[in-house]
Task: structure prediction
Amino acid sequence: MTTALSFFRHRQKLLLLLGSAYVAALIVTHAALPPVHVWAIACVFSVLMNFVYIVEARAQGRMIATETIVMVMLITASLLGLLIHPLFVIAAIFAHGLWDLAKHYGHGVPFFSWYTWGCCAVDLIYGTALLLYWLSA
Result:
């Protein structure tokens, strides 16, 4: 990871805190709100997860186009999940997890491996939970 220009290099504790708060808020909102809101919650959290890497790309001044394209595609899929069919948001969350995995292997803007592995795990678990919820409905 490029250290000199990294936005998150000296903010790893903040990144960990925000990531943990994200996961806690994900669990709390799904537990507290009625099932009618499942897909809206999934859409909001799916959209939010897409901003970390573009912030880093802009700070490093590289891979901005790649990160923007991925972000726009995933946000678009998330919104389609809310507007057209839940499978779009499920696919967006799974795809983000795969993008995290790809980042670990050098694609896109370089990022911390602890974060990419953790985000990949959260995305794949959350995507699976949503898929099972959708299949059971």
The first helix runs from residue 12 to 32.
